[in-house]
Write a structure and sequence with these properties.
homodimer; 327 residues; alpha/beta; Rossmann fold; 3 domains; seven-stranded parallel beta sheet; 14 helices; globular; disordered C terminus
């Protein structure tokens, strides 16, 4: 490895926020040597507690995260926050209000914040988030919080990689439960009805509790449902108690779980494959001739995909062995 | 191709809804011969108008889709609806209310509905949706509507493949604009503020218009923003006029656009690669030994991913040619 990288790693390990930020960028941008960085730091990771926060847009996740991150910071924990942010050329890459609140808490001494744009990272988002968690972990952050803006399939995948998942909703005309139901309920370790100073919070708590009651096999496994308000501070103490308990438990447990590690290897392979496809098979005008064949009606996307795959030896192998599917 | 499949294709091409449903299932389940089906039908596709509908959960997308689908049906168009549905073991695979409304409109003669579960299809969702569009197109549907429940990165990708994208929001405490801003604004051809019988609709229309105004380069390109209510029927006529205009334009235009075709080839390749990784590289206990190496601290996920890739010739090739990245 280049000496420059080795020094950057050393500095990040010794609490330099600047080195940490540079290290993350180096890996995110896939600059030469990024993989060496990941391999080098791995042995010193696995100690951090990863908390995933997702839920309906507008539920006030950023304010809530800001609130409990500050309190965890006050208790002496060092904290990394990853804001997964569907960047849009439109909104200037960020949901403005959120970012302003984020900037506010980033002045706290124990809190390090990093935004991750999702645009153009499809498929690789999850791995990119894992990489950033790993680097923050190496840099000694006690707690890493991953917050997503939306609640789509990709965002669910991202927070699923966390040790502890918090689903946040709010009283918003009674439709908010729908957002949380949509495929995410089963990954929640904790359900938070935020903005509980608004009317209707209790109804939502009852609805979620009823759904959890119906679907969870043993009463002991039913995750807690709490009400919070980042505005009136109601429920924040209770939230802190629950999080502290999880943090204590995690600190005593194993560093890595087999299923998480398995998922990570799969995710690395997928991300690499997708980038190989984009850069080398279909990119740089490599398939203009083939596209013309499709547009002129002489071929179809499936036949062309087969043809492009055959240029790479592995696909020949695979095809031979999977005749049933590739006829 | 098996005769059974050839007959199924023929029947689907002759308006048999049962054959159409079976054909879709055959392809979705990746049963033997599915790719032959896609290759065979391709030449007879490209005629349908694909309308993508996405937006905040709870915005009433299903009711709105039901409303305009019925009216398009009354005008003599045949319609296919694909409801992309984040299935959850929790909610029984569907957001119940939506499905009930959907069942209601499925009794309409000209409307064919298909639900697609997203669970477990990560990465492949987009291609799976394209496949279903293609099959409905082949079966002669004049219009195919893709409706997503959420508004995450994957859902955005799915509707991006449509010819025309409708973004739906609603007056829900003022936070709804945030949901539509989050990375999706730039893909919208039409903005709909639904449930406009509720208070606050005009404010949301102004907010969206202001954002569009700021970000769109020429005034002529600013997409329309309309108010609708599936309940009072306000705005539905205007929506119908806008959709009719798009449908007329699309019917006169080229069947396929180069960029869409390029995206489809990439998407097919990615989907196949990911399934190869899951089934053959990391699946069936193929990497238990490697996982133990990681858990015992003797290796790390990146080194193991490299090792697993090397077992497949293409990766050797790629590695040789990309030395800078794979050191």
């Amino acid at each position: 490895m280049e000496e420059k990288l080795a020094l950057m790693i050393e500095a990040a390990g010794e609490n330099s926020e600047r080195a940490l930020a540079k290290l993350i960028s180096h890996v995110e941008d896939r600059k030469t040597g990024w993989k060496d960085i990941m391999k080098t730091i791995y042995a010193k990771t696995g100690r951090t507690c990863v908390i995933g926060v997702t839920g309906s847009p507008g539920a006030g996740k950023s304010s809530l995260v800001g609130e409990f991150a500050k309190r965890l910071g006050d208790r002496g924990y060092t904290i990394g926050i990853i804001a997964v942010d569907p960047s849009s050329p439109f909104s200037g890459g960020a949901v403005l209000g959120d970012r302003i609140r984020m900037r506010d808490i980033s002045t706290y001494q124990n809190i390090f914040i990093r935004s991750m744009a999702t645009r153009g990272m499809l498929g690789g988002l999850c791995q990119a988030a894992r990489d950033v968690v790993r680097i923050m972990d190496f840099a000694g952050k006690d707690i890493v919080i991953i917050e997503t803006v939306g609640v789509g399939q990709d965002e669910i995948e991202v927070v699923s990689a966390a040790d502890y998942v918090m689903l946040v909703t709010y009283p918003g005309g009674g439709d908010s439960v729908q957002a949380i139901k949509a495929g995410v309920m089963e990954i929640g370790d904790l359900f938070v009805v935020n903005k509980c100073d608004r009317e209707g919070a209790d109804i939502i708590v009852s609805e979620i509790s009823a759904m959890l009651d119906l679907s969870t096999e043993t009463a002991a496994k039913i995750p807690p449902v709490i009400k919070t308000s980042a505005f009136t501070k109601e429920g924040i103490d209770e939230l802190m108690d629950i999080l502290s308990e999880f943090i204590q438990k995690k600190k005593k447990g194993p560093h890595y779980q087999k299923d998480h590690v398995r998922q990570e290897v799969i995710s690395i392979l997928e991300t690499e494959m997708v980038s190989i496809i984009k850069e080398r098979i279909t990119g740089n005008g490599n398939m203009e001739k083939e596209l013309e064949l499709i547009l002129s009606g002489k071929s179809d996307p499936y036949s062309i995909a087969d043809k492009l795959m055959k240029r790479f030896t592995v696909i020949k192998n695979v095809e031979e062995k999977r005749k049933g599917d590739f006829q």
